[in-house]
Each structure stands twice: as structure tokens, then as C-alpha cells.
Amino acid sequence: MCLMEAEGSAQAACYTRHRLALALYTVDRDREAAEVAEEALAWFLAQRDDEQYAEIIGDLRELLSRIYTTLGEPHVALGQLDALLETVTGVERLPQRAELLERAGELLWQVDRDADAAARFDAAAQAYGQADLPLETVHARRREVMALYHCGRHDDARAAAARLVELMDVTEVPAAQEPGLTWEKATAGYEAALILTNTDQPDYEAALHRITPVPVWYQMIGAVQEALFAKLRHGQVLVVAGRPEPAEPLLWQVLEGLPEEQGARRDAAFWLARALDEQGGHDRAAKLRAEFDLPQPEQG
Known about the structure:
This protein is mainly α and 300 residues long. The protein has helices at 2-6, 10-26, 30-46, 50-70, 74-85, 94-110, 114-130, 134-150, 154-170, 178-197, 204-211, 214-220, 224-240, 244-257, 264-278, 282-291.
């Protein structure tokens, strides 16, 4: 590259820098890749010829957004994505634009800008829909629901979750994508149970309606551990809804099914002890709490 520049071939050197940055990124030399790509991008931007260099500038911004994401610098990655999105327009580029919007949403989520993330997921879903990519549309809508919830817009999150159910009910995908759609349905139900219960005005019946089929859906696609997590959430909702009897066997299944090193076993023990207590099984509950080093309830 230095020889190219010495011979007056700065353009060729910068195209070579792009290829070198790609190679460095491929072998996990991320910081070096970022430096090389930044040098190339700076040169192309300095030429002020958007038409001639638009493609390579876009490629470099795309690469830099991925490098900085890997480096744990989401704000810098987001800046590259925002700049790139200004140039990715037109119907033929809708799939790329949708993917970039979704990635921007995920980065905003990482830095706790949940309201902005919700807006990006909404825009991504619209673009995916216009591009006739139904599974991707469902995924972006599901991410929007959780972003709305975490930014404190709980009513909007509930409404969006209800619309997502309607969307999933009419969504058709090729056979190869059916497991993916099942995953989205299961995960949407799992998350909806959180949205409907962890709020100032919990709706336990609606939460139970959403969470009940989720373990089976996960099992259908071989997601065994996720099915156990769903049973844990199902058990939690039953306990807080005042139904400890059906919660008990679910929580035993979770406790016995998860590997010993899995931290969620302690959560399952907590809720199982509470279910036992509420059925009068105080000795069994106390023994379970002692086994998992859980605090015993104060005697009142």
C-alpha cells in the first residue's frame, strides 16, 4: 500500500486497505481492522465524489459498524449505521435498509435508549413488510414490543403485543422457515407473560393464556432449555395469580430438568418454596430454601 501511494495510486491503496480490513476482521484482529478501514474511509470521503465512491463508502461503513459492535463500542457503530442509512434508499434496497434499521435498534437497546430502539424496530418492521419478508417482520415487531415495555410505555407495549399476535396468526412462511416462526411465537408468548404481569395493573389471566402453550412450542423445535424456562415463567405466573397447586408440578419439572450449574434452578426453588408454603407445606418449603441457600420467611 505504501508503494502504491508513493507511485501516486492512493485510490488503489485505499481499495486494498478495504480488503485488508476485511481480512483482519475475519481473523479477529478487530482494532487493527478498524484503523485500516477508517484510513480508507477518510480518503474516499475526502474526494467528495459521492457518485463514484458511494459503493465503497457504503461497504466501509457497513464493515466498520460490525467491527465497532464486536469491539463493544455501540455508539460508534451506531454512527456508522446512521450515516449508511442516509444512502440506502429505493425499493430495491428495502431488505438491506430493514436489516440496517434492525441492527441500529439492537445497538440502541444495548445503550439503554429503549424508546429510540422501539422506533427503529418499528421502521425495520415496516421495511421488512414492504420487502415481503414475513418472518423478519414478525421478529422486528417482537423486538419493538420489548423496547416499548422497557422504556416504560407499558400500555403501548401491551397494544403492540396484541397486534403481534394478530400478525403471527396470519403470517405464512416457507417450510424451511417454519421453525423460525415457531420460535418467534414461543418467545413472543414468553415475553408477553412478563409484560402482562410485571406492571402496576397485572392481567394474570391474559398472561396465563399467552404462556401456557409456550413450552410445547419450544419443544416442537428442540429448544429444550427454553421450554424449561417457559415452564418456570408459567409457574411464576400461577403462583402470583394465587394458583400454587398447578404451579408445583411445573416448578418441580424445571428444578429437575435444568443442569445443576444453571442459575435459574435457584429461581425455580424460590417459586416452588413459595408454592409449597401457600399449600401448607411449610416444612418442605423450609428444606428446599435451606438446600438452595434461600432466605427463610420471617415468622409473623
